Amino acid sequence: MFTLAHISDLHLGPLPKAESWNAYFSKRAIGYLSWRLRRRKIHDPRVLAALTEDITRHAPDHVALTGDLVNIALPGEFHNAATWLKGFGNADWITLVPGNHDAYVGVGWEKGMGLWADYMTGEMRMPGARHSVENAAIFPFVRQRRNIALIGTSTALPQSLRRAGGSLGREQIEALAHILGELRQKGFYRILLIHHPPLPGQAHDRKALSDSTHLKQVLEHEGVELVLHGHNHVHMRTDLKTRHGTAHIVGVSSGSALAHKGMPPAAWHLYRIRRQDGEWLNETIVRTWNQSTQAFETEAEFVLTN
């Protein structure tokens, strides 16, 4: 059995001070106001600390983190997130893909996401492409853990003022099609990690993946056992029929959020994956923050089969 924890959308706070006020002469000005007036009251560092303690107590074999570690992409945020990652676990134990807030504005690789590069590096030799100047890692990348293949993608690109969407791009989608086919032939249980919901209609237009239709076609043609995403800050579960069975697509709520205005509190998912009688069994546990008990508790359990 292989056990995997999935977390997303941590939005680490508090915001550090910028080097100068010039840093806010951009989209960051709106993000800073949003943080001060609303988001800092939602994303509680104490909840995130309890989440990491709960995951550590369950001792999964691996952790998948699907983006949005930071808020408005201040250089200090990337340093703080790097410190947080190292405190939580080493890069062999955590696989990270970036989210739209990690590319809130363009930041040079060495001062930005490059500080997390060890968590976004594959071990299997596969085709890939450099996604952008700000994101100089190779995507998709593949990590092998026993008979599990973790496939990391990036949808993180700076967006215009009122947009929070993302894009994979032609080169990444073409590489992904090749990777999924090759891993299927080798018998791996394939887990695709992506920040934005992967299918058309799963996010509002201004927050959606721009090439979700093309990604859906690749998934339908090549198949995939499990897709894990974040972004919407809610629990999501969709089954997609493919030429090679059912692709289970599961989203998790924010890992640091308090319940607010109908939105769910923080949660993380624990997947217990094994091969049995010729099929894959994935026993899933949803662990959710209970404000009354100040602890994470099991809210739901279900089984995914392939």
Notable traits:
single chain, 306 residues, Purple Acid Phosphatase, chain A, domain 2, 6-stranded mixed β-sheet, 5 helices, globular
How would you explain this protein's 3D organization?
It is a single chain. By secondary structure, this protein is α/β, with parallel strands linked by helices. It contains five helices and 14 strands. It has helices at residues 28-42, 45-58, 75-88, 170-185, 212-222; strands spanning 2-7, 62-65, 94-96, 129-130, 138-139, 141-145, 148-152, 189-193, 226-229, 236-242, 245-251, 267-276, 279-290, 295-305. It starts with a strand and ends with a strand.
Major beta-sheet overview: 6 strands, mixed
Mean pLDDT: 94
String of helices and strands: EHHEHEEEEEHEHEEEEEE
Low-confidence runs of at least 5 consecutive residues: none
